[in-house]
Specification:
Helix content is 54%, strand content 12%. The two termini are 24 Å apart. Bound molecules: zinc ion (2 copies). One zinc ion binds next to loops.
Length: 404
């Protein structure tokens, strides 16, 4: 029989043909193991090229403009973050990376993957699909779009807001990137690179504990485990990510430490007529409630307080269950893990709001907005929890511990 291993839980599965437009899911963890997409690689390429063309007006033209005491001020995607580079280089660089560099590099990786496929160059395809896989978690156009709405509501208190010429391109760019993020996968490129006739066959008596076959984390090919490197893409074959538990604990503990300064130090400082108003995340939410902006208060509270803490608690819970070899509730823990991965980037929202506010509220001593030291700690929490989620090998959640 033809077999393949689920890349998320390592279950050994029979390979079955999948009709166009359908996908096959793993019966244990529910991950999609085979997808026969209706969108071809050339369709993805067309969308990537369209997104590439839109990328420049979306990034360079102003998204919104306000009239602050008679002076028009506008913000583009990175204008605020560029200002931040001076005083808060880490926060500025983080916003620029997630809203400009990562989306650009992600689109570029799709274009280059098509080129590598065209020239049938395995090494290049390895690097670009590696980049593609890493970058997809850092593309935060959607987060920036919601941040823009939040910042917009905040500034309508003090100034008239108008839509800039880049906003339309930016919204369409987000739609195209959302389509790409849901469709593009390294495995699809590798399957196009070499057909799956190289798949391993096992005798029909093989069970899921059979460890003579291993799946490549990079390209998804199931193969005999005596190879040290994948014979399709060349990636190192590991049964589990090397020291996954240790890496996840390390980033999680570091993130937990930074949660305290992130919440105790002011995250934003408003200078108004020479007076200094400092706000921590919590006091910022409280003052939004006082002003009657309940919706935004809930959004900020969720993204900045609930999400980071939930990520730490959930990942900690999964790690403890792995370490204490808890057998029940694996499917539920897998759902929690997916949720943590999905929700990860939304905690960047407050930093994006800060970057937007910095570029919009800039009238020197009259009215000025800067981040506080809490923003650095908060940025570290965001990065560390994302690294923690990525270093956890989901197959560990499914490892069976009973006596064999
Ligand atoms: Zn699975
Ligand atoms: Zn491979």
């Amino acid at each position: 029989m033809h077999v393949l291993r689920c890349a998320s839980c390592d279950l050994l599965l029979h390979k079955v043909p999948v009709a166009k437009g359908f996908s096959a899911r793993c019966p244990d963890c529910g991950s999609r193991v085979v997808k026969n997409s209706t969108l071809s690689l050339s369709g993805e390429l067309a969308i990537a090229i369209a997104a590439f063309i839109l990328f420049f007006p979306a990034q360079l033209l102003p998204l919104v403009t306000i009239d602050l005491f008679g002076v028009p001020l506008s913000t583009s995607v990175t204008s605020g973050a560029v200002i931040l580079l001076d005083s808060f280089p880490f926060v500025g660089a983080l916003v620029i990376f997630s809203t400009a560099i990562a989306p650009f590099a992600y689109l570029l990786s799709i274009l280059l993957a098509n080129l590598a496929l065209h020239f049938h160059h395995a090494r290049s395809l390895y690097y670009v699909t590696y980049a593609m896989k890493f970058l997809r978690h850092w593309v935060m156009i959607d987060v920036f779009l919601v941040s823009l709405a939040v910042a917009g509501f905040k500034v309508t208190e003090i100034a008239e807001l108008s839509v800039g010429s880049g906003l339309f391109s930016f919204v369409v760019l987000q739609v195209l990137i959302a389509v790409l993020l849901s469709r593009v996968s390294p495995k699809k490129y590798w399957d196009a690179f070499s057909d799956s006739s190289e798949d391993v066959k096992l005798s029909s008596g093989a069970t899921e504990v059979d460890d003579t076959v291993i799946s490549c984390k990079q390209c998804g090919l199931t193969q005999h485990s005596e190879n040290h490197h994948c014979h399709r893409c060349g990636a190192k074959l590991e049964k589990r990510i090397y020291q996954s538990i240790q890496k996840t604990w390390a980033s999680l503990i570091a993130a937990t430490v930074f949660v305290f300064p992130a919440n105790l130090y002011p995250i934003s400082i408003l200078l108004s007529n020479g007076k200094r108003f400092e706000d921590t995340i919590f006091s910022g939410v409280a003052s939004l409630i006082k002003q009657g902006m309940y919706g935004i208060a809930i959004i900020i509270f969720t993204a900045s307080i609930i999400v980071p803490v939930a990520k730490i608690v959930f990942l900690g819970y999964i790690l403890i269950c792995i370490q204490f070899k808890v057998d029940s509730g694996r499917a539920q823990r897998m759902k929690i893990y997916r949720f943590v991965q999905w929700i990860g980037k939304w905690s960047m929202m407050d930093l994006c709001v800060i970057a937007i506010m910095v570029s919009l509220i800039d009238r020197g001593n009259l009215l000025d907005f800067t981040p506080g030291p809490g923003a650095i700690a908060f940025g570290l929490v965001v990065v560390l929890t994302m690294i923690a989620a990525e270093s956890l090998d989901s197959r560990l959640i499914w490892d069976k511990h009973e006596q064999r």
